[in-house]
From TrEMBL:
One of its GO terms (cellular component) is Golgi membrane. One of its GO terms (biological process) is Golgi organization. GO terms for molecular function: phosphatidylinositol-4-phosphate binding. This is Golgi phosphoprotein 3-like isoform X5. Keywords: Golgi apparatus, Lipid-binding, Membrane. It is found in: Golgi apparatus, Golgi stack membrane; Golgi apparatus, trans-Golgi network membrane. Belongs to the GOLPH3/VPS74 family.
């Protein structure tokens, strides 16, 4: 489970520090969770998985932190949210016996191809699986965290490398070979720093200049990316370039956001249930 930490060189700052940063309301209207929305990038369209990996990569070195053991499951959670936002899957309706997000099964809404190999591979697994599974179980199966040998077929392999190759094709990363004493490793340094900075700026603005203090009024893809960045333990990378005051405000607001009760938020009008179900799954793990 990931944690949100504060920079060690500063004294603890409470939530009152938010007063130091002006906020203005976001006038964007809520968007349908079933609508594929890439409006934040007019030139390059990125999936949630590509955005999470891009945030986690070291720009020059081209690899994620060796100490990050959260990003693999975070990427799988991103796949489920992406499929839900594209109208391919959804959570079964709540019943008296299955009210909680984590108790409800993932159901197929459409099996039409998305054009993304990882998404379509996952969609194929979901379509073929009987009985249906929950969000938490799917994250575990797609990551390969299962003791059932018959379920290992659902594991998505080489996910980071496959996502990185997509980013290479989109002109954001390049491919290099680096020698690490005992072994060679393929790395993917960032070449399009403008695109990464755009992504970082979008997330920073969402908890600073465009903070609305209500997840239901936030852009759904931005909300999903904040949840996934937290779950993948890459949120520190997003806020590290901020000044001390803004860093504290951003961290406090992000902390407040991911500590909301997913069961409550998921029932609100226009909420994207899959986002909150994925957060609930990571909170439980």
């Amino acid at each position: 489970m990931t944690t949100l930490t504060h920079r060690a060189r500063r004294t603890e700052v409470g939530k009152n520090s938010e007063k130091k940063v002006e906020s203005e309301e976001d006038t964007n209207q809520d968007r349908s969770p079933d609508h594929e929305d890439f409006s934040d990038s007019k030139d390059i369209r990125l999936t949630l998985m590509e955005e999470v990996l891009l945030l986690g990569l070291k720009d020059k070195e081209g690899y994620t932190s060796f100490w990050n053991d959260c990003i693999s499951s975070g990427l799988r959670g991103g796949i489920l949210i992406e499929l839900a936002m594209r109208g391919r899957i959804y959570l079964e309706p709540p019943t008296m016996r299955k009210k909680r997000l984590l108790d409800r099964k993932v159901l197929l809404k459409s099996d039409s191809p998305t054009g993304d190999v990882l998404l379509d591979e996952t969609l194929k697994h979901i379509k073929a699986t009987e009985p249906t599974e929950t969000v938490q179980t799917w994250i575990e199966l797609l990551t390969g965290e299962t003791w059932n040998p018959f379920k290992l077929q659902y594991q998505l392999r080489n996910v980071r490398e496959r996502i990185a190759k997509n980013l290479v094709e989109k002109g954001i990363l390049t491919t290099e070979k680096q020698n690490f004493l005992l072994f060679d490793m393929t790395t993917h340094p960032v070449t399009n720093t403008t695109e990464k900075q755009r992504l970082v700026k979008k997330l920073q603005d969402s908890v600073l200049e465009r903070w609305v203090n209500d997840p239901q009024r936030m852009d759904k893809r931005t909300l999903a990316l904040l949840v996934l960045a937290h779950s993948s333990d890459v949120l520190e990378n997003v806020f590290s370039s901020l000044t001390d005051d803004k860093y504290d405000v951003a961290m406090n607001r992000a902390k407040d956001l991911v500590e909301l009760d997913p069961e409550v938020e998921g029932t609100k009008h226009s909420a994207t249930e899959m986002i909150w179900a994925v957060l609930a799954a990571f909170n439980k793990s």
